[in-house]
Amino acid sequence: MMMARKQDGRVPTYTVSVVGLSGTEKEKGQCGVGKSCLCNRFVRPGADDFHLEHTSVLSTSDFGGRVVNNDHFLYWGEVARALEECVECRIHVVEQTEFIDDQTFQPHRSTALQPYIKRAAATKLASAEKLMYFCTDQLGLEQDFEQKQMPDGKLPVDGFLLCVDVSRGMNRNFDEQLKFVSNLYNQVAKTKKPAVVVLTKCDEGVERYIRDAHAFALGKKNLQVVETSARSNVNVELAFGTLVQLVDKSRGKAKIIPYFEALKQQSQQIAAAKDKYEWLVGRIVKSHHELWPNVSRKMTAAPEYQDYVYLEGTQKAKKLFLQHVQRLKQEHIERRRKVYLALLPQALDALVPDLDEIDRLSRAKLEKLLEAKPDFLKWFVVLEETPWDATSHVDDVDNERIPFDLLETPAAEQLYEAHVEKLRNERKRAEMRRAFRENLESSPFVTPGKPWEEARSFIMNEDFYLWLDESVYVDIYGKHQKQLIDKAKEDFQELLLEYSELFYELELDAKPSKEKMGVIQEVLGEEQRFKALQKLQAERDALILKHIHFVYHPTKETCPSCAACADARVEQLLGSRFLRHHRNNPSVDASVDRINLVILGKDGLARELANEIRALCTNDDKYVIEGKMYELALRPIEGNVRLPVNAFQTPTFQPHGCLCLYNSKESLSYVVESIEKSRESAVGRRDGHSAQLPLTLVLVNKRGGGDAGGETLQSLIQQGQQIASKLQCVFLDPASAGIGYGRNINEKQIGQVLKGLLDAKRNLNLVVASKEASDGAELRVVMCLMCGDPVSADEVLAPILQSQACRPAPGGGAAVLLETPVGSQRRKVELSLLSYHASFGSRKNRLVHGYVVFYAAKRKASLATLRAFLADVQDIVPVQLVALAEGSAELLDNDVSREQLAEGEEIAQEIEARFAAWPCGGGGGGAQNKLEIFQAFFKDALDKKNLVEAAHMYDNAAEACGAGEDVFGSPRAGSPLCNSNPPDSEEDPEILPGYSPFREEPPVVATLPKDHSKLSMELEGNDGLGFFSVVGTFDGKPTKIPPPVKPKPPVHFDIKGDPGYLEQSHRDLHRRSVSSSAWPPPDCFDPSDYAEPMDAVAKPRSDEENIYSVPHDSTQGKIITVRNINKAASNGSGNGSDSEMDTSSLERARKPPGAAKPALYRARCARLGRFAAYRPGVTVGSDDEAAPGRKKDEEPGGHGGYKGDNAGMAYEAGDGEDPRRRNILRSLRRTTKKPKAKARPSLSKAPWESSYFGVPLASVVTPERPIPVFIERCIQYIEATGLSTEGIYRVSGNKSEMESLQRQFDQDHGLDLAEKDFTVNAVAGAMKSFFSELPEPLVPYSAQLELVEAHKINDREQKLLALREVLRKFPRENYEVFKYVIAHLNRVSQQHRVNLMTSENLSICFWPTLMRPDFSTMDALTATRTYQTIIELFIHQCPFFFSSLRPPPPDTPGSPGPAPATTVVTSMVTTTMVTSTMVTSTMATTGSSFPPPLSPPRTPSPELLE
Q: Which helix (H) or strand (E) holds 1420?
C-alpha cells in the first residue's frame, strides 16, 4: 500500500485523508467539526492564508467546477515537511466531506452513490483534472487562484485523521458524533490503514467531551489522540506528523504533547515575535503622522516583521502599528501640554503682574481681562475648534502660543491660583524688605564696616525671620553696608581734599615717613569722617596712601575725581570745540600715524633688511608700536644718494629716520660717504629736517659667517662706534643687542628703532608748535579748576570757549589763545586751562604771568585746595579769585557758601588780589559780561609782566647754577609732568628711557640721583637722540675717556622779542635744556663749559663717593666731575627727594651773585599757611630716615666741599634770601650720624611683623596646596586684568601701595585684590617682593651652578635635556612654585605684542629675583648673562620643561644647602637688575662680547629640536 516510496533515494510521499462527521445540518449541526480548518492550517500555516469559513453548501455549478469536480472530497494540495530526525517528506492532504445542494439542501449527486462512512474509508481516490482547493472564494473564480491539479488524477490513501469536535457545537449531540466516529473508525479499520483521532477546536473544548473522546480511543487498539486547535495553530503539525510516523514503521513513535503545554509554547513564541515586532515599529516609526502602507513597505524585509505576520497575520501587525502611532500622538499632546503649562506662569506674569487687578477674580472674568490685554495674542491663541488637542494647532511646533481653552483644565487653574499666591507672597516679602531697609537706615547701631553678626540682634524681628531667607537679609545688609562704606569713603576723600594744605606742607613723596603719617593721623583723628572708618582701618590707610600718591604724582589717572577730573573734561571740550580747526592746523603733523624709514646699505643689505621688516608687518604694511598700529613706509637705498632715484627725500616721501647697515669696511665707508652727501644736499636746500635726520648705525651679520679679509667682529664694532660718535647717532652691534644668527636685526630692535623715530618725530612737532605758541601769546595765564566741583568745567569755561576771539593755542595742549582788550589795545592772552593738581608744577618751572583760580562757594575742599596752591605762589604774580555759586539763592540760603565767599574775599584783600563772585546756573549775565571780569586782572598781569619774567629768569638761572635748593628739595618745585612715572619701588626701580631708546643698557640716569640726571639732560642740548656709551671698569682702573664729541651749538632766542624764552613745554617728559636759551651775564654761568655726558659705570666703592667724569669738547683736558650721592632713583628722584648735588669748585665758582627773591603769598596772608608748622624743616624729619647725613665743611671761607658718602651742593644764600626758607632747607639736610627715631603715631596700632612674608617657602605651602596663596591670588589678578598692561613687571608699582597690599593680606589671607582696586603694577611688584624676601632664593644655590654647567653644552638638544634633569633635583616646594611662576610668565610673553614684554624682557626682570646670585666674585658678575638666558629658556620653552615632567617625590635629594654669603655691591648699582645689565654692557665695551644666544626649539619635544 505504501509502495516503495523511498526507493532511489527520492523524498517519501504520503497521502492523508481527513475524515469526520459530515452531512446535512440535521446530521452535523449548524457548523462542521473543523476538518477544513485543520487542513487549511496544515497546508498553509501562515496567518494571512488561514480562513475560518469553509462552507459545504454549494450550488450545482460550483459543485461541478474543477475544484470540487462533482466529488465529495477536496484536494488541499501537497506539503513538504521536515519531520523528526530532520527527514523531509511530502504529504498530500485530502478532505472527505459531503457537499449539500443550496437548492434542495440534500447531498449532491456524484459518481459514487455510497454513504459517507463507506466513501470516507476509501483508500483509492480518483478525479481527473481536479484542482487544488484554497478557500470558498475560489469556487467559480478558479482563474484568480493558483491552478494545481491533483497528481495523475488519482491518489492512494496511506492513513486517516478522524476529527472529533470537542467544542459545544450548535444543534449537535456529542454522543451521536462519537457514535458516528466509532462507526467510521470501524469502517476505516477494515482498510488496515493507520488512523489517528484528532480532537479539534480544543480552544473551545468541553472537558467532558475531551474525556469521552480519550475514553473512546482507549477502547480501541493502538489508537492515538492529538488535541489540536486550528484557530490557535496548536498541535496541527503534530497530528499529521503522528500519522506519518504510524504509516512509516521505520520512524520512532511520536511524542504526544498535551494541548495546554503546546498552547503555552505557541503563546511564548507569539509573544517573543510580538516584542521584536514592536521594537521594530518603535525604531522605524517616530512620528504619529506615519501611515501603514509606507511603514509596511519599509518593514517587509525585516525578519521581525515576517515572523510576526506569519504567526499573527498582517491585520494584527497593522493593529499594533496603529496602537504605536496613537501612543506617539498622546505623548506629543502631553509634551505640548507641558510646554503650554510651563509658559502659562510667564504669560500671567506678563499680562497680569498686579495683584490688585486679579485678586479674588473668577475664571470667567479673568478670561475677559486677559483678552482685553494688548499682548494677549502674543501669549494665547483662540482656536475655532475645541478641544485644542484635537486640532492642527497641536502639530504647529513653531507656534508656542497657549490655546485659550487650556485655561479650563484643572492644571491651568492650579497654576493660576499659584500665580495669585506668589503675588501675595512677593508683596509681603517686598514689604518686609522695605521695612528691613528702613530699619537699617534708621538704626544708629549700623555703622560702616560693622559685621552682620554684631548688628543682627539690633535690627531683626520675627517677621523678618518668617518672610525673608537668611541670604536675602544678609544680601540687603551687604548692599547697605556697601552704600555706607562708599559714602564714608567719599566723605573721607573729601576730608582729605579739605586738608590739602596739610599734605602739601608735609612735602610728601612716594615713601612717606612714619612721622609724617603720624602727623596726618593726629590732625585728622578728631574728624568724624575719619572716625567713621574706624572698623576699616586698612581701607582708610589705603585711601590715605592713595591720596599721598596723588599729591606726589598728580595725573588724570590718580585724580580722586576720576572721570570728573577737570583736565579730562577740558580735553574733551577743546577737542569738540576746535575739532575742525585742529584738522586744518598746519602745525599738526597729519601723518602722525605714519613712519617713513630710509634703509641705507650696499651689496643688498638694504633690500634684505627691508624684506625682513616687511615680513614682520601685517598684510597692509602696518606695524604695532606700544599697542598702536602705524603705517610703515620703507625706502631701501644702495646707490649714489646724489642721484634722484636714491635721494633720501622725494616729493612724496619725507623721511623720519635712517637705518644705516654695514658688515665690512667698504660698506661702512659707503654709509659715511652717503650721509655726508645727503647732509650737503640738505644744507644746499636749506632743509634743516633732513640735515638733522635721526640715524642708527647697525652692524649686521656676514653671510656665511667667518672673517672676511682679516676683519674681525671686534674691529668692526670699534670702527662703528667711532663713526657713530662722529655722526652723533646710535650704534647697534650684535653683542649688545643679542642678534641671532641668520638674521640681520631682531624684531625687538626694530620696535625700539621705530619707537625712537616716533618719539623724535613727535618732539619735532612739539618744538614747532611751542615756537609758534611763543611767537603768538603776549601774556600767559593759568586758569585753575577744582576737580569734582558742583559747577562743571563746561559752565565755567563756556564764556571763554564760546567767544569769537578764542582759538586753540598753536602749541596745542589744554590751552587757548584769547584776543581781548587789555588796557588801550587788543592783546593775545594764552589761557592754560588746568586742574589745580596739574597747575602745582607750573609755579616754579614755567613762566606764568598770572593765575585765575576758581573755587566752588559751597565746597570746602575747593577753597582748601586754592589756599594750598596760592601758599607757594610768588607774591609778584597777579591772582584773580573767582567764587562759583550755583545761583544767587545759594548766597542767601547756604551758610557754608556765605562763609567761603567771605573768606575768599578776605584772602584776596590780604594778598592784594582781585576777587569776583560768579553766579552759575543761568544767573550772572551773559558770556561777555563774565569775560569783562578779567579785564582788570589782565591789565595787572600786563603791568607786572617784566617783573614776573625777571623773577622767572632768576629762578631758572639759579637752578642751573645749583643755587636754587628749592628746586630739588620740594615736591612742588618741579612739575609733575617732568616725572609722570616716578619710581616708587626700591627693589626694581623703573628706569625711565634715556636719550637712546635703542640700547638695552640703562643710561647714566639709572645710577645718578635725579638732580644729576636733570643736570645731565640740561647739558645735553636739544638733540633727542644723544647716545651714551659705557666707560670705566669694575676693577678700579682710571676712567677711560672715549673719543671727544663735537659740541652742539646752542640755540639762541631774543629775550626782548620773546620774554617766554625759558618756558618749557608741559607736553615733554624732560625739561628743555637751559643751553637752548639766552643766558645771564657770563660771570654767573657759562654753558660752554659743559658738553654732552657719556654713559659711565661707577666703580664699586663702599665708603667713598662715585665720580662720573664727562669729557669737555671746547677746551682740551678739561673734565667736569659730578659726585654720586649714592641715592639712585628712589624716594622721588628729584620730585620730593631729599638728596642734593655737590658741585665741584668749578661749579661753585660760577654761581650767580646773591639777589633778592620775591616772597610767597603765604607770607602775606595767615590763612594760606595754617599748617606751616608741620613743614619738614620745622618739626618733622625727612621722608627717608636711612639716608646718610651731611655736614658743612668748617674750612675758612666756605670754599671746601662737603665730606662723607653723600656730598651735596653747598648752600650759599644770597644777601636777600628769606631766612625762614633757608632754615627750612637746612633742616631737611641729613647729619652724618643717623638720628634716633622718636616714638610717633602710626597708621597701624602696632609695628607690622609679618608671619607670612620673609619666611621659608616650606612654611607657607602644604602638599595639598603647593602654591602659596599670595602668589596664586596675585597671578590670578594679573592674568585677569593686567596681561595687556604695557611693561608689566618692568614698570614698578607704588611702594606704599605694595606695602599696604602685603599688610592687608597678612591680616586676611582671603583678601580680594579686585575689590580693593590695587593697581596691576603694585600687585606685580608685591609678588616679586615675596620672592625677594625669601630666606633662600626660589632657584636653590645648589642648583644654580649645575644650571650654568648645563647651559654651557653646545648641542641644543642635550642642553635642554640637561637643564630639565637639573629641574628634577629641585626641592618639591621650590619645583611646584617655580613651575607655576614660569608658566605664568610664558602666558605673559604670549601677549608681548600688547604688553611689550617678551620672554627676554621678562627674564631680565625676574632672574635676579628668582636666583639672587652671589656677586662677591668676578665669576658671578660675568655669569649674569648666562643666568638671564637660563630663565629666558625656561620661560620660552615652558611646555617642554614642565608638560611631561612629573614633580619629584618628597624625598628627592638635592635640597639646597646653606646659602653662601651674598654681597651686593650697592655702591656700584642700585639693583641687581641694573648691575647685570651694566656688566653686560661693560663686557661689550671692553671687547669680551657674548656670542648670540641659540634660538630655543619651537616644539616641546626634544626629538624635533633639529
A: helix 1418-1422
Give CA angle at 26 (24, 30), nearest 5°. 80
At residue 594, φ and ψ (nearest 5 deg) are: -130, 140
Q: Is 238 exposed, middle or buried (0-12, 13-18, 19+ CB in 10 A)?
A: buried
For the stretch 1461-1481, pLDDT in tens is 333 332 323 333 333 333 333
Give all strands (DSSP E) within 1054-1193, no chain letters: 1106-1111, 1119-1124
Question: Can you say whether residue 1054 is alpha, beta or left, with left for phi > 0 and alpha for psi between -120 and 50 degrees?
Answer: beta
**Which residue reads 599697542 in cell numbers?**
627
Query: DSSP character for 49?
Result: G
Grid look-up 475524515 returns 19
Helices and strands in the chain: count of H runs, count of E runs = 56, 27
**Where does 231-353 have alpha helices with state H?**
236-247, 259-284, 292-299, 303-312, 314-351
Q: What does the alpha-carbon distance between residue 1449 and residue 351 come to, in Å, rounded to a whole number?
A: 67
> Which of 205, 208, 207 lies closest to 228, judged by CA?
205
Question: How far apart are alpha carbons 1006 and 1477 in whole angstroms?
Answer: 11
Buried b (16+ CB within 10 A) or exposed e, 395-411: eeeeeebbbbbbbebee
H/E element holding 773? helix 747-776
Indicate if the pLDDT at residue 329 is higher than 50.
yes
Rounded distance, CA 304 to CA 321, Å? 13
Residue position matching grid coordinates 625700539: 752
pLDDT digit string (tens) for 768-822?
444 444 456 889 999 999 999 988 888 888 888 888 888 888 767 788 998 888 8
Contact 730, 998 (CB under 8 A): yes
Structure-block grid coordinates of residue 956 = 631758572
Q: Which of 1226, 492, 500 is nearest to 870 (CA)?
A: 500
Provide the 10 A C-beta neighbour count for residue 803.
16
In the numeric block, the cell 551758610 is attached to: 895
Beta bridge partners of 779: 829
What's 447's DSSP letter?
A: -
Instruction: Say how far apart CA 1104 and CA 1108 lie, in whole Å.
Output: 13
Interatomic CA distance for residues 446 and 1190, integer angstroms: 54
Count CB-CB contacts under 10 A for residue 674.
Answer: 24
Q: Which residue has the higher pLDDT, 393 or 622?
A: 393
Q: Read off the C-alpha cell for 516.
A: 609724617
Q: Give the span between the Cα atoms of 1131 and 554, in whole angstroms.
A: 16
